[in-house]
Amino acid sequence: MGEQEKLKIFDDNKKLIGIASRSDVHRIGYWHEAFHCWFISNEQGIDYIYLQLRSKYKKDYPNLLDITAAGHLLADETIEDGVREIKEEVGIDVNFKELIKLGVIDYCVVQEDFIDKELANVFLYKIENSFDDFTLQVEEVAGMVKTKLTEFAQLWSGEKDEIEISGFRIDETGQRRNIQESVNKEKFVPHQVAFYKEVIQKIQEQVS
Question: What's the predicted TM-score (pTM) here?
Answer without folding.
Answer: 0.93
